[in-house]
Specification:
The protein has a single domain, classed as 4-Layer Sandwich (Metallo-beta-lactamase, Chain A). The protein is built from ten helices and 15 strands. The chain has 286 residues and is of the alpha/beta class. It has helices spanning 16-26, 66-76, 93-96, 99-106, 114-120, 180-186, 200-205, 210-217, 225-235, 255-262; strands at 9-11, 35-41, 48-52, 57-60, 83-87, 109-111, 129-130, 138-140, 143-149, 158-164, 167-172, 191-195, 242-246, 270-273, 283-285. Strands 1-15-2-3-4-5-6-7 form an eight-stranded mixed sheet, with helices on one face. Helix 6 links the parallel strand 11 (167-172) and strand 12. Bound molecules: zinc ion (2 copies). One zinc ion (ZN) binds next to loops.
Length: 286
């Protein structure tokens, strides 16, 4: 077992049963159902985020291979049979690479907008995909998944919050600017994956060609550490317990640098940097 924090955020890469036992042991008086979340991978090489309760879960994006997703979930003690749906944020391959095989092999329904589906050219089995609409809640068992639009250079980009038992977690990556939708939903979250893509000086002085630097910085590009920090400090809920800094650039950021930007402002929120190379721990939010 990894180190445990005896407060309301517990990293526990264990089976659902053992997690439930710990929950009962540590929080006998709480009636809220916990939410579990983990980054399976995070970065321009692939994004996949797990959010679920004790019996049901969704993946937000599936941007690494099916096999690697299976291995990482198994290491975390997360049962892939609990994954009832994959929600796709946009068509870039770092968010869709593993979708077809995961969906087909495990009979997981994919939720994707019609335009993103067309643009992605994903070959999805007709009985295993559904369209979602911005602003309309999708119920996956007891999980409530809420899609909302965001600014990014894709045809119809969305982000999602996932709620269960009064706890809300959100995925906020691939965002050029914090529009009103992003800010509104971020403010609802007890836990969030928030993009901290680049350090502004590293990007400026780095070796990327000018057109790529402009694209990354644009209103439809990615959030810098500084932009993400402003969203965090100005819009977070007092109930926010966990912030996973996500989609870090390999070239224009560094995990310790991003952590150091946020840590002085944590004010009770646990700050974690999601890795481009390995899965995070499983965090329980209750
Ligand atoms: Zn991306
Ligand atoms: Zn993207």
């Amino acid at each position: 077992m990894t180190k445990m924090h005896y407060h309301l955020i517990i990293p526990i890469p264990l089976t659902a049963i053992v997690r439930a036992m710990i929950f009962v042991t540590i929080f006998p008086v709480l009636c809220k159902m916990p939410l579990y979340l983990a980054s399976i991978n995070s970065g321009s090489n692939g994004n996949c985020y797990y959010i679920g309760n004790d019996t049901e879960a969704v993946l937000i994006d599936a941007g690494i291979s099916c096999r690697e997703t299976e291995h990482r979930m198994a290491r975390l003690g997360l049962d892939i049979k609990n994954v009832k749906a994959i929600f796709i944020t946009h068509e870039h391959t770092d968010h869709t690479r593993g979708v077809e095989v995961l969906s087909r092999k495990h009979s997981i329904t994919v939720y994707i907008t019609a335009a993103t589906h067309q643009s992605s050219r994903l070959m999805l089995s007709p009985e295993l995909y559904r369209n979602f609409t911005s602003g309309f809640l999708v119920r996956i068992g007891a999980l409530k998944v809420f899609p909302f639009p965001k600014q990014h250079d894709a045809c119809e980009p969305h982000s999602f919050t996932v709620s269960s038992g009064g706890i809300t977690a959100g995925v906020f990556t691939d965002i050029g600017s914090g529009c009103e939708h992003v800010l509104h939903h971020f403010a609802q979250c007890h836990a969030a994956f928030l993009e901290a893509n680049y350090d502004e000086k590293m990007l400026e002085n780095g070796r990327y060609p000018l057109h790529l630097k402009r694209r990354i910085r644009s209103l439809k590009g990615h959030l810098s550490n500084e932009q993400a920090l402003e969203i965090f400090t100005r819009h977070r809920s007092p109930q926010m317990r966990l912030l996973l800094l996500s989609h870090l650039s390999a070239e224009n950021n560094h995990p310790q640098l991003a952590y150091n930007v946020f840590y002085p402002h944590a004010n009770g929120t646990k700050i974690v940097v999601a890795s481009r190379h390995v899965e995070s721990e499983v965090y329980m939010i209750s």
